[in-house]
Amino acid sequence: MKISILNKFQKSDLKISPFPHIVLKDALNKDIASTLTKEFPLHEFDLSGNNLRRDIPSYKVANALKISNLWRDFIKYHSSRQFYIEVLNAFKEALSEKDFKKYNDYQTGLRGFNSHKRNKVLMDAQISINTPVEKLSSVRKAHLDNTNKFFSGLFYLRLPNDDSRGGNLQLCKWREEYTLSKKIKLYRESLHQNHYEVFDELKYENNLAVLFLNSIESLHSVTPRYETSYPRCFVNLVGEEKDDIFYKQRFLSRKTTEVKNLLRKFINRPD
Questions:
Q1: Rounded distance between C-alpha atoms, residue 104 and residue 15, angstroms
Q2: Could you list the pLDDT tens digit for every one of the 271 residues in the chain?
Q3: Torsion angle defined by CA atoms of residues 26, 214, 244 and 149, in that order, rounded to the nearest 10 degrees
Q4: Angle between helices 97-105 and 81-90 (to 10 degrees)
């Protein structure tokens, strides 16, 4: 599929350590990337606020007539089972034979539209931005993604005249001596830099794709962005399961969070 960000993927692009990840520069045909950039639907976003994340989920894109046909096709494909299988095959060497077969048998649905009752993995391809920057800030420091995500991905489409600084993606790894239990004990959102090191920094640029399998090892961060009137434009890719596939909190912390979420649902439920 020419429209797939994995169209040019080769086995050598898969890096296993410190967590399975793929980085593809010039991922798409230049004409397709150029058209997607030109037709990026900025008109659909609220650009107010300092360096804030805004998303349009894939289930809303299909019927958004002000979004171009190419964008609708692009989002439809990257939230489809066909793309899921493409991702799975790309990461095959990083999975056990048993896990590969298990994931290959999973059905997929659309996050926000379908439920996990019938679908093991819900896909999403969000058209996303970080709003312009009024003061130096990072949209998100070192962190792990939600523990029920099988894979995560980002596809960057920097605008042609964007001369801003910062907003690079850092791929990070825990300190070598840390055990699994210590990682779970220490983990916090915006993890302190004493606990990890950056092993790769990917400049925010046009037509760059990054995909990784999610786990306790998959630390990543975004460098601070300096003042700019330009938004940071990208697509956020997700394959999400119903249940956790790893833990990043201790047992009591997880249970406390679960109780709080249940209470919020109860308090906010309609009469």
A1: 21
A2: 689 999 999 999 999 999 999 999 999 999 999 999 999 999 999 999 999 999 999 999 988 989 999 999 999 999 999 999 999 999 999 999 999 999 999 999 999 999 998 899 999 999 999 999 999 999 999 999 999 999 999 999 999 999 999 999 999 999 999 999 999 999 999 999 999 999 999 999 999 999 999 999 999 999 999 999 999 999 999 999 999 999 986 655 655 665 666 676 666 654 4
A3: -10
A4: 170
Rounded distance, CA 78 to CA 6, Å? 10
C-alpha distances (whole Å) from 172 to each of 22, 139, 153, 192, 210 are 14, 16, 15, 12, 14
Rama region for 22: left / alpha / beta (φ>0; ψ in -120 to 50; rest): beta
pTM for this entry: 0.91
